């Protein structure tokens, strides 16, 4: 039975030109703005997944052997096409994941820059040759020619929050390196993902070099990640799913960016106005639905009151609401379930004695930016990643207490330290168990050629343009044995 029923689009979204197929072989994509259906994507069966992976496998030898300059040319073209479609894509992003228009637009232009930089970087990566005589017992007659080889078929799995950028930042380096790619977008974000694939094809990618499988992760995810045709998995998403994938797979290299609980550590001598401005933007942009969002403040007691007053003032200036109507800072969360989770964290903290400074209000999946003071280590919000607009403040007695609390997290993505003293900044940075420490800045991923990684439960391996290309290639040594 595969009957089609007509679905009428909500007036909020009727300007979007997306097809809706209402049958059991399609999944509905629900907008976080208004909760209505935006479009549908196919729910792939196992046989269809097999077919797409096989296409990528078959396309691999020819793509690997395609000159790098030609592969790079496709990325330059894709970057141009992306920019040509920036208005349409921005609009789709706003509708599909509820991002504010300015951030959505910058996601697209950043992705175009990313693709160009990837092509440039790939062209400048080269191998080396090594002579044997450095090792005792060998001489110059033995020479290794060391090249970088693609790994084969890369499975790229992206999350909902950057449906264009976190897809392209896996796909572009993988393709530049000579791999073929099977792309599994987050279901909310799959309409954007579909457009991105179309753009790569329009740029001239041969058939099978980039294929896409859509379907709910809970239904097809395990089948895809354990498929024998996959040679490498590049995943961004929650720690829960990342851990699950790493338990399911065997002998497949993994590159994973997972959850975080980034701390902003504010020392006594920090420029508090500057720190507050950075923290508010770091914590609340896209309503905190960013892995690198500032997710807790560890502030020295002596300056806590002053910092909190400044934070409150800035938070109260944030524009909250519907990104389809106007430019706002804080938008509805991706769905009701996400909002329930954040709401429960706020309630738990309040019940255990946290002081609500501002926010603490909810309208459906829109949570108002919330600042909680006097958060203690028995409260869930001190440790759990909200992926929403709630910011806990933990007051500390000393710099070492801040470091201890920062490191007590199971996560280790990034941390900020705000201070005017470079010695103190480096002392704190040297002790923090994270992938990146930001001195006097909010936590953030860019610029995209910097290494981006998480330690502990925040990830495996390193992304960032050159790092991603290197991660998705392997070294091959061809040894010349001369006998002169
Ligand atoms: N460190 C980083 O760089 C980043 C980390 N994140 C983290 O991601 C989370 C939010 O993103 P969200 O999209 O909700 O994350 P999820 O972990 O829920 O989903 C991520 C992706 O995994 C897919 N998936 C789900 N189950 C499986 C499975 N069994 N096998 C294979 N794939 C599966 C999802 O598909 P489907 O949508 O169909 O379920 C989606 O494509 C937060 O925890 C955040 O910290 C987000 C962005 C960046
Ligand atoms: O997915 C995320 O949340 C990102 O990797 C963070 O990127 P950003 O710091 O540029 O928002």
Automatic annotation (TrEMBL):
Coiled coil: none annotated. GO terms for molecular function: lactaldehyde dehydrogenase (NAD+) activity. The active site is at residue 257. Pfam families: Aldedh. Residues 22-477 form the Aldehyde dehydrogenase domain. Keywords: NADP, Oxidoreductase. SUPFAM superfamilies: ALDH-like. PROSITE patterns: ALDEHYDE_DEHYDR_CYS, ALDEHYDE_DEHYDR_GLU. The keyword Oxidoreductase applies. Belongs to the aldehyde dehydrogenase family. This is Nonphosphorylating glyceraldehyde-3-phosphate dehydrogenase. It comes from Anaerocolumna aminovalerica. The lineage of its organism: Bacteria, Bacillati, Bacillota, Clostridia, Lachnospirales.
């Amino acid at each position: 039975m595969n009957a089609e029923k007509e679905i009428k689009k909500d007036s909020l979204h009727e300007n979007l030109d997306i097809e809706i197929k209402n049958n059991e072989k399609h999944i509905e994509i629900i907008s976080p703005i208004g909760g209505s259906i935006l479009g549908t994507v196919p729910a792939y069966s196992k046989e269809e997944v097999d077919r797409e992976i096989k296409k990528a496998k078959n396309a691999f030898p020819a793509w690997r052997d395609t000159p790098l300059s030609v592969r790079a040319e496709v990325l330059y073209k894709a970057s141009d096409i992306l920019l040509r479609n920036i208005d349409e894509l921005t609009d789709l992003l706003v509708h599909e994941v509820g991002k504010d228009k300015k951030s959505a637009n910058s996601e697209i232009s950043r992705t175009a820059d990313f693709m160009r930089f990837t092509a440039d970087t790939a062209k400048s990566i080269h191998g080396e040759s090594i002579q044997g005589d450095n090792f005792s017992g060998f001489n110059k007659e033995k020479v290794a020619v060391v090249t970088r080889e693609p790994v084969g078929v890369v499975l790229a799995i992206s999350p909902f929050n950057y449906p264009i950028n976190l897809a392209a930042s896996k796909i572009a380096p993988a393709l530049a390196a000579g791999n073929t790619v099977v792309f599994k977008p987050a279901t909310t974000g799959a309409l954007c993902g579909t457009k991105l694939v179309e753009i790569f094809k329009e740029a001239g990618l041969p058939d099978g070099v980039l294929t896409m499988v859509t379907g709910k992760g809970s239904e097809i995810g395990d089948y895809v990640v354990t498929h024998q045709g996959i040679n490498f998995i590049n995943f961004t998403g929650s720690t829960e799913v990342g851990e699950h994938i790493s338990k399911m797979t065997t002998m497949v290299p993994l590159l994973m960016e997972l959850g975080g609980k980034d701390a902003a550590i504010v020392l006594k001598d920090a420029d508090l106005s500057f720190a507050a401005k950075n923290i508010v933007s770091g914590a609340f942009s896209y309503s905190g639905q960013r892995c690198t969002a500032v997710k807790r403040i560890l502030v020295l007691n002596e300056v806590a009151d002053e910092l909190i007053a400044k934070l409150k003032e800035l938070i109260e200036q944030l524009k909250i609401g519907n990104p389809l109507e106007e430019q706002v800072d804080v938008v509805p969360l991706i769905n009701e379930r996400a909002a329930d989770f954040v709401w429960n964290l706020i309630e738990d903290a309040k019940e255990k004695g946290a002081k609500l400074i501002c926010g603490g209000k909810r309208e459906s999946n829109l949570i108002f930016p919330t600042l909680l003071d006097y958060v203690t280590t028995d409260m869930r919000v001190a440790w759990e990643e909200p992926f929403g607009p709630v910011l806990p403040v933990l007051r500390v007695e000393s710099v070492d207490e801040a470091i201890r609390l920062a490191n007590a997290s199971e996560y280790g993505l990034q941390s900020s330290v705000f201070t005017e003293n470079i010695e103190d900044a480096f002392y704190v940075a040297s002790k923090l168990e994270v992938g990146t420490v930001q001195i006097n800045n909010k936590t953030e991923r860019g610029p995209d050629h910097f290494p981006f990684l998480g330690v502990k439960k925040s990830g495996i391996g390193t992304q960032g343009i050159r790092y991603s290309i290197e991660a998705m290639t392997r070294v091959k040594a061809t040894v010349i044995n001369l006998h002169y």
